[in-house]
Amino acid sequence: MKELLVFILNNLIENDQYQIKEISDGNHVTFEIKIDPNVIGLIIGKNGSVVKSIRNLLKVRAVIEEKTVSISVEEELN
């Protein structure tokens, strides 16, 4: 599932502008994404539309893997 998230983010922004931390707890996976403040708007999108779409894609993958997933997006403090 992380590979899918990395693929999506790499096509939206550059590799060095984000960090992903994966936290697994049984059947639940949480992804904490820390993003450069200059490009956080590209990930969130207008009214959160982009991040909602990313969440929906990951939920589809999670159903296939019989898991649940959540995403947290935060600004990276340099």
Could you explain how this protein is built, in words?
41% of the residues lie in helices and 31% in strands. The chain has a 3-stranded mixed sheet, with helices on one face. It contains 3 helices and 3 strands. It has a single domain, classed as GMP Synthetase, Chain A, domain 3 (2-Layer Sandwich). It is globular and about 35 Å long. With 78 residues, it is an alpha+beta fold. The model has no long low-confidence stretch (mean pLDDT 92).
Short description:
Helices cover 41% and strands 31% of the residues. It has three helices and three strands.
The parts where pLDDT drops under 50 for at least 5 residues are none
Inertia-based shape: globular
Examine the secondary-structure arrangement and name the CATH architecture.
2-Layer Sandwich
Structural class: alpha+beta
Would you tell me the overall average pLDDT? 92
Q: Count of DSSP E strands?
A: 3
The CATH class name reads: Alpha Beta
Termini distance? Answer: 27 Å
CATH superfamily, please?
A: K homology (KH) domain
Arrangement of strands in the largest sheet:
1-2-3
Largest sheet: 3 strands, mixed
- How large is the count of helical segments? 3
Under CATH, the topology is which?
GMP Synthetase, Chain A, domain 3
Counting structural domains, the number is 1
In terms of DSSP E residues, the strand content is 25-35%
- Proportion of residues in helical segments: 40-55%
Order of helices and strands: HEEHHE
Radius of gyration: 12 Å
